[in-house]
Amino acid sequence: MAVLSSAPLQFVASIPLATRVITAATIVLSLVYYFLRWSGNEVTALSWLVLIPGSSIFYPWTLLTSAFIETTVVELAFTLITIPPSLRYLERLWGAVETAKFVAVTITVSNIIAFGLNWLEYMVLGYPSILYEQAYHGQMALQIGVLVAFTQIIPEHQVQLFGVLKARVKTLPMAYVTFSTVMCIIGFQCPFIVIQFGWLVSYIWLRFYKKNSGETLSGGPAYGDRSETFAFVSWFPPFIHTPITLLANTAYSLATKFHVIPTGSSDVEAGGYSQLPGGARAEAERRRAMALKALDQRVASGASSPAPPPRATNGSATSTRTGPSSLSETPAPMATSADASSKGSSDSA
Q1: Burial code of 326-340, b = ≥16 C-beta within 10 A, e = fewer?
Q2: Is the Cβ–Cβ distance between 29 and 139 less than 8 Å?
Q3: Beta-carbon count within 10 A of 267 CB
Q4: CB 239 within 8 A of CB 293
Protein backbone atom coordinates (compact mmCIF):
# COMPACT_ATOMS: atom_id res chain seq x y z
CA MET A 1 0.00 0.00 0.00
CA ALA A 2 2.85 2.37 0.77
CA VAL A 3 4.29 1.76 -2.67
CA LEU A 4 0.93 2.45 -4.34
CA SER A 5 0.37 5.63 -2.34
CA SER A 6 3.82 6.98 -3.14
CA ALA A 7 3.62 6.29 -6.88
CA PRO A 8 1.51 9.38 -7.73
CA LEU A 9 3.77 11.55 -5.60
CA GLN A 10 6.83 10.25 -7.38
CA PHE A 11 5.21 10.95 -10.73
CA VAL A 12 4.37 14.52 -9.73
CA ALA A 13 7.87 15.03 -8.38
CA SER A 14 9.34 13.87 -11.70
CA ILE A 15 7.51 16.64 -13.58
CA PRO A 16 9.73 19.72 -14.09
CA LEU A 17 8.88 22.81 -12.05
CA ALA A 18 7.49 25.12 -14.73
CA THR A 19 5.34 22.39 -16.25
CA ARG A 20 4.03 21.47 -12.81
CA VAL A 21 3.07 25.07 -11.99
CA ILE A 22 1.36 25.70 -15.34
CA THR A 23 -0.59 22.45 -15.13
CA ALA A 24 -1.68 23.14 -11.56
CA ALA A 25 -2.76 26.68 -12.48
CA THR A 26 -4.84 25.34 -15.38
CA ILE A 27 -6.61 22.79 -13.18
CA VAL A 28 -7.21 25.11 -10.19
CA LEU A 29 -8.40 28.17 -12.13
CA SER A 30 -10.65 26.09 -14.38
CA LEU A 31 -12.25 24.47 -11.33
CA VAL A 32 -12.72 27.91 -9.73
CA TYR A 33 -14.45 29.07 -12.91
CA TYR A 34 -16.75 26.02 -12.90
CA PHE A 35 -17.63 26.61 -9.25
CA LEU A 36 -18.47 30.30 -9.79
CA ARG A 37 -20.53 29.55 -12.88
CA TRP A 38 -22.49 26.73 -11.27
CA SER A 39 -23.12 28.82 -8.17
CA GLY A 40 -24.71 31.58 -10.25
CA ASN A 41 -21.76 33.98 -10.31
CA GLU A 42 -20.93 33.61 -13.98
CA VAL A 43 -20.60 37.38 -14.47
CA THR A 44 -17.97 37.53 -11.74
CA ALA A 45 -16.19 34.51 -13.16
CA LEU A 46 -16.07 36.07 -16.60
CA SER A 47 -14.93 39.49 -15.46
CA TRP A 48 -12.21 38.35 -13.08
CA LEU A 49 -10.82 35.33 -14.90
CA VAL A 50 -11.28 35.52 -18.69
CA LEU A 51 -10.39 38.27 -21.15
CA ILE A 52 -13.35 40.47 -22.11
CA PRO A 53 -12.09 43.42 -24.19
CA GLY A 54 -14.70 45.83 -22.83
CA SER A 55 -14.04 45.21 -19.14
CA SER A 56 -10.60 43.65 -18.90
CA ILE A 57 -9.01 47.06 -19.11
CA PHE A 58 -9.84 47.23 -15.40
CA TYR A 59 -8.56 43.66 -14.81
CA PRO A 60 -5.21 43.53 -16.62
CA TRP A 61 -4.20 40.21 -15.05
CA THR A 62 -6.76 38.50 -17.29
CA LEU A 63 -4.31 38.94 -20.17
CA LEU A 64 -2.46 36.01 -18.58
CA THR A 65 -4.99 34.21 -16.40
CA SER A 66 -7.52 33.79 -19.22
CA ALA A 67 -5.24 31.17 -20.78
CA PHE A 68 -5.61 28.96 -17.71
CA ILE A 69 -9.41 28.92 -17.95
CA GLU A 70 -10.95 26.13 -19.98
CA THR A 71 -14.69 26.76 -20.02
CA THR A 72 -15.71 23.16 -20.80
CA VAL A 73 -14.58 19.81 -19.50
CA VAL A 74 -13.73 18.68 -23.03
CA GLU A 75 -11.41 21.65 -23.54
CA LEU A 76 -9.79 21.04 -20.16
CA ALA A 77 -9.21 17.36 -20.95
CA PHE A 78 -7.69 18.16 -24.35
CA THR A 79 -5.38 20.75 -22.80
CA LEU A 80 -4.21 18.37 -20.09
CA ILE A 81 -3.51 15.68 -22.67
CA THR A 82 -1.46 17.90 -24.98
CA ILE A 83 0.19 20.74 -23.05
CA PRO A 84 1.84 19.13 -19.97
CA PRO A 85 3.73 16.43 -21.95
CA SER A 86 4.82 19.02 -24.50
CA LEU A 87 6.04 21.48 -21.89
CA ARG A 88 7.80 18.68 -20.04
CA TYR A 89 9.76 17.87 -23.19
CA LEU A 90 10.62 21.53 -23.84
CA GLU A 91 11.56 22.24 -20.24
CA ARG A 92 14.11 19.43 -20.19
CA LEU A 93 15.77 21.11 -23.17
CA TRP A 94 15.37 24.78 -22.26
CA GLY A 95 15.14 24.85 -18.48
CA ALA A 96 12.39 26.20 -16.26
CA VAL A 97 13.11 29.91 -16.76
CA GLU A 98 13.11 29.90 -20.56
CA THR A 99 10.04 27.66 -20.65
CA ALA A 100 8.13 29.99 -18.31
CA LYS A 101 9.15 33.02 -20.37
CA PHE A 102 8.04 31.31 -23.58
CA VAL A 103 4.64 30.46 -22.10
CA ALA A 104 4.10 33.93 -20.63
CA VAL A 105 5.14 35.80 -23.78
CA THR A 106 3.12 33.59 -26.14
CA ILE A 107 -0.04 33.87 -24.05
CA THR A 108 0.16 37.52 -22.97
CA VAL A 109 1.24 39.10 -26.25
CA SER A 110 -1.34 37.08 -28.21
CA ASN A 111 -4.08 38.28 -25.87
CA ILE A 112 -2.86 41.88 -26.11
CA ILE A 113 -3.13 41.70 -29.90
CA ALA A 114 -6.62 40.19 -29.67
CA PHE A 115 -7.62 42.86 -27.15
CA GLY A 116 -6.41 45.64 -29.46
CA LEU A 117 -8.08 44.06 -32.50
CA ASN A 118 -11.47 44.00 -30.78
CA TRP A 119 -11.18 47.65 -29.80
CA LEU A 120 -10.20 48.52 -33.37
CA GLU A 121 -13.22 46.64 -34.71
CA TYR A 122 -15.43 48.46 -32.22
CA MET A 123 -14.14 51.88 -33.30
CA VAL A 124 -14.74 51.01 -36.97
CA LEU A 125 -18.07 49.16 -36.70
CA GLY A 126 -19.50 50.59 -33.48
CA TYR A 127 -21.07 47.35 -32.17
CA PRO A 128 -20.87 47.05 -28.35
CA SER A 129 -21.15 43.27 -28.65
CA ILE A 130 -17.60 43.22 -30.01
CA LEU A 131 -16.34 44.39 -26.63
CA TYR A 132 -18.68 42.73 -24.15
CA GLU A 133 -19.88 39.51 -25.75
CA GLN A 134 -16.54 37.97 -26.68
CA ALA A 135 -14.52 36.23 -23.99
CA TYR A 136 -11.04 34.96 -24.80
CA HIS A 137 -9.94 31.92 -22.84
CA GLY A 138 -8.00 28.69 -23.11
CA GLN A 139 -4.54 27.70 -24.29
CA MET A 140 -4.96 27.72 -28.07
CA ALA A 141 -2.16 30.27 -28.39
CA LEU A 142 0.10 28.08 -26.28
CA GLN A 143 -0.83 24.98 -28.27
CA ILE A 144 0.25 26.55 -31.56
CA GLY A 145 3.35 27.91 -29.81
CA VAL A 146 4.33 24.42 -28.74
CA LEU A 147 3.89 23.18 -32.31
CA VAL A 148 6.16 25.98 -33.54
CA ALA A 149 8.77 24.99 -30.96
CA PHE A 150 8.62 21.37 -32.06
CA THR A 151 8.98 22.49 -35.67
CA GLN A 152 12.17 24.26 -34.67
CA ILE A 153 13.57 21.31 -32.76
CA ILE A 154 12.35 18.16 -34.53
CA PRO A 155 10.82 19.26 -37.86
CA GLU A 156 11.16 15.89 -39.61
CA HIS A 157 9.76 13.80 -36.78
CA GLN A 158 6.65 11.91 -37.85
CA VAL A 159 3.63 11.71 -35.57
CA GLN A 160 0.41 9.76 -35.81
CA LEU A 161 -2.82 11.65 -35.23
CA PHE A 162 -5.86 9.85 -33.82
CA GLY A 163 -4.19 6.55 -34.64
CA VAL A 164 -4.83 7.03 -38.36
CA LEU A 165 -3.25 10.13 -39.90
CA LYS A 166 0.51 10.41 -40.17
CA ALA A 167 2.18 13.79 -40.54
CA ARG A 168 5.54 15.42 -40.01
CA VAL A 169 5.83 17.88 -37.17
CA LYS A 170 6.69 20.79 -39.47
CA THR A 171 3.28 20.53 -41.20
CA LEU A 172 1.19 20.76 -38.03
CA PRO A 173 1.45 24.50 -37.19
CA MET A 174 0.14 25.72 -40.53
CA ALA A 175 -2.60 23.09 -40.44
CA TYR A 176 -3.72 24.54 -37.08
CA VAL A 177 -3.48 28.09 -38.47
CA THR A 178 -5.60 27.06 -41.45
CA PHE A 179 -8.21 25.64 -39.07
CA SER A 180 -8.19 28.97 -37.20
CA THR A 181 -8.67 30.89 -40.45
CA VAL A 182 -11.67 28.77 -41.43
CA MET A 183 -13.28 29.21 -38.00
CA CYS A 184 -12.79 32.99 -38.17
CA ILE A 185 -14.28 33.17 -41.66
CA ILE A 186 -17.46 31.37 -40.60
CA GLY A 187 -17.89 33.75 -37.66
CA PHE A 188 -16.01 32.30 -34.68
CA GLN A 189 -13.31 34.93 -34.25
CA CYS A 190 -13.27 34.44 -30.48
CA PRO A 191 -11.24 32.60 -29.35
CA PHE A 192 -9.85 30.94 -32.50
CA ILE A 193 -8.05 34.01 -33.82
CA VAL A 194 -5.52 33.77 -30.98
CA ILE A 195 -4.14 30.70 -32.76
CA GLN A 196 -2.84 32.96 -35.52
CA PHE A 197 -1.43 35.46 -33.04
CA GLY A 198 0.17 32.68 -31.01
CA TRP A 199 1.84 31.29 -34.13
CA LEU A 200 3.36 34.64 -35.03
CA VAL A 201 4.38 35.60 -31.48
CA SER A 202 5.97 32.24 -30.66
CA TYR A 203 7.88 32.21 -33.96
CA ILE A 204 9.28 35.71 -33.42
CA TRP A 205 10.28 34.83 -29.88
CA LEU A 206 12.06 31.63 -30.89
CA ARG A 207 13.62 33.21 -33.96
CA PHE A 208 15.09 36.31 -32.31
CA TYR A 209 14.61 36.60 -28.55
CA LYS A 210 14.88 33.25 -26.81
CA LYS A 211 18.17 32.96 -24.96
CA ASN A 212 19.89 29.69 -25.68
CA SER A 213 21.20 28.65 -22.28
CA GLY A 214 24.72 27.28 -22.23
CA GLU A 215 25.47 28.53 -25.74
CA THR A 216 27.85 31.40 -26.36
CA LEU A 217 29.47 32.88 -29.39
CA SER A 218 32.53 35.15 -29.16
CA GLY A 219 31.95 35.60 -25.45
CA GLY A 220 28.28 36.65 -25.69
CA PRO A 221 24.98 34.80 -25.25
CA ALA A 222 23.24 33.35 -28.28
CA TYR A 223 19.70 34.50 -28.93
CA GLY A 224 17.15 32.83 -31.16
CA ASP A 225 17.62 30.57 -34.13
CA ARG A 226 18.69 32.38 -37.31
CA SER A 227 19.15 29.21 -39.36
CA GLU A 228 17.79 29.03 -42.90
CA THR A 229 15.57 26.06 -42.14
CA PHE A 230 13.66 28.18 -39.59
CA ALA A 231 13.22 31.20 -41.86
CA PHE A 232 9.81 32.88 -41.97
CA VAL A 233 9.34 32.07 -45.65
CA SER A 234 9.59 28.35 -44.92
CA TRP A 235 6.06 28.40 -43.47
CA PHE A 236 4.50 29.23 -46.83
CA PRO A 237 4.13 27.42 -50.18
CA PRO A 238 6.79 28.18 -52.82
CA PHE A 239 4.56 30.17 -55.17
CA ILE A 240 4.31 33.07 -52.66
CA HIS A 241 7.90 32.99 -51.43
CA THR A 242 8.85 36.14 -53.37
CA PRO A 243 6.39 38.58 -51.74
CA ILE A 244 6.78 36.93 -48.34
CA THR A 245 10.58 37.24 -48.57
CA LEU A 246 10.30 40.92 -49.52
CA LEU A 247 7.93 41.60 -46.63
CA ALA A 248 10.05 39.67 -44.12
CA ASN A 249 13.29 41.34 -45.21
CA THR A 250 11.70 44.79 -44.95
CA ALA A 251 10.36 44.08 -41.47
CA TYR A 252 13.73 42.65 -40.39
CA SER A 253 15.61 45.70 -41.71
CA LEU A 254 13.30 48.09 -39.84
CA ALA A 255 13.51 46.07 -36.63
CA THR A 256 17.30 45.99 -36.87
CA LYS A 257 17.49 49.71 -37.61
CA PHE A 258 15.49 50.59 -34.51
CA HIS A 259 17.33 47.97 -32.39
CA VAL A 260 14.18 45.97 -31.70
CA ILE A 261 15.90 42.65 -32.41
CA PRO A 262 18.92 41.51 -30.37
CA THR A 263 22.01 41.59 -32.56
CA GLY A 264 25.71 41.22 -32.02
CA SER A 265 28.35 38.54 -32.15
CA SER A 266 25.74 35.87 -31.54
CA ASP A 267 23.89 36.60 -34.78
CA VAL A 268 24.21 33.44 -36.85
CA GLU A 269 23.17 35.28 -40.01
CA ALA A 270 26.18 37.53 -39.62
CA GLY A 271 28.49 34.60 -40.22
CA GLY A 272 28.88 33.12 -36.76
CA TYR A 273 27.68 29.77 -35.52
CA SER A 274 26.14 28.49 -32.35
CA GLN A 275 24.71 25.10 -31.63
CA LEU A 276 21.03 24.94 -32.35
CA PRO A 277 18.57 24.93 -29.44
CA GLY A 278 17.78 21.57 -27.97
CA GLY A 279 21.16 19.94 -27.58
CA ALA A 280 22.73 17.15 -29.59
CA ARG A 281 19.47 15.43 -30.50
CA ALA A 282 17.95 18.59 -31.93
CA GLU A 283 21.19 19.37 -33.74
CA ALA A 284 21.20 15.93 -35.35
CA GLU A 285 17.55 16.28 -36.34
CA ARG A 286 18.17 19.68 -37.88
CA ARG A 287 21.20 18.48 -39.81
CA ARG A 288 19.11 15.56 -41.08
CA ALA A 289 16.43 17.96 -42.26
CA MET A 290 18.98 20.11 -44.06
CA ALA A 291 20.52 17.04 -45.70
CA LEU A 292 17.11 15.86 -46.91
CA LYS A 293 16.38 19.29 -48.32
CA ALA A 294 19.72 19.40 -50.15
CA LEU A 295 19.14 15.89 -51.49
CA ASP A 296 15.70 16.85 -52.80
CA GLN A 297 17.21 19.87 -54.55
CA ARG A 298 19.91 17.75 -56.17
CA VAL A 299 17.40 15.17 -57.34
CA ALA A 300 15.19 17.89 -58.79
CA SER A 301 18.10 19.59 -60.58
CA GLY A 302 19.37 16.23 -61.85
CA ALA A 303 15.98 15.36 -63.27
CA SER A 304 15.71 18.68 -65.10
CA SER A 305 19.22 18.59 -66.70
CA PRO A 306 20.03 16.18 -69.59
CA ALA A 307 22.22 13.20 -68.79
CA PRO A 308 25.78 13.28 -70.30
CA PRO A 309 26.62 10.69 -73.00
CA PRO A 310 28.28 7.51 -71.67
CA ARG A 311 32.01 7.22 -72.03
CA ALA A 312 33.87 4.42 -73.76
CA THR A 313 35.64 1.95 -71.48
CA ASN A 314 38.46 -0.59 -72.04
CA GLY A 315 39.20 0.85 -75.44
CA SER A 316 35.86 -0.20 -76.96
CA ALA A 317 33.61 2.15 -78.88
CA THR A 318 30.11 2.89 -77.60
CA SER A 319 27.17 1.75 -79.62
CA THR A 320 25.17 4.91 -78.92
CA ARG A 321 27.52 7.23 -80.76
CA THR A 322 26.24 8.39 -84.15
CA GLY A 323 28.03 9.74 -87.25
CA PRO A 324 29.83 8.38 -90.27
CA SER A 325 33.07 7.56 -88.45
CA SER A 326 31.64 6.34 -85.14
CA LEU A 327 32.68 2.73 -85.66
CA SER A 328 35.71 3.05 -87.93
CA GLU A 329 37.97 5.87 -86.83
CA THR A 330 38.47 5.33 -83.10
CA PRO A 331 39.13 1.58 -82.86
CA ALA A 332 41.57 1.44 -85.81
CA PRO A 333 44.58 3.08 -84.12
CA MET A 334 44.04 0.97 -81.04
CA ALA A 335 43.98 -2.24 -83.05
CA THR A 336 47.12 -1.16 -85.03
CA SER A 337 49.02 -0.45 -81.86
CA ALA A 338 47.96 -3.78 -80.46
CA ASP A 339 49.18 -5.63 -83.61
CA ALA A 340 52.46 -3.72 -83.57
CA SER A 341 53.10 -4.58 -79.99
CA SER A 342 52.36 -8.26 -80.58
CA LYS A 343 54.62 -8.27 -83.67
CA GLY A 344 57.45 -6.64 -81.78
CA SER A 345 57.19 -9.15 -78.99
CA SER A 346 57.33 -12.07 -81.47
CA ASP A 347 60.40 -10.60 -83.27
CA SER A 348 62.18 -10.17 -80.00
CA ALA A 349 61.37 -13.74 -79.09
Answers
A1: eeeeeeeeeeeeeee
A2: no
A3: 20
A4: no
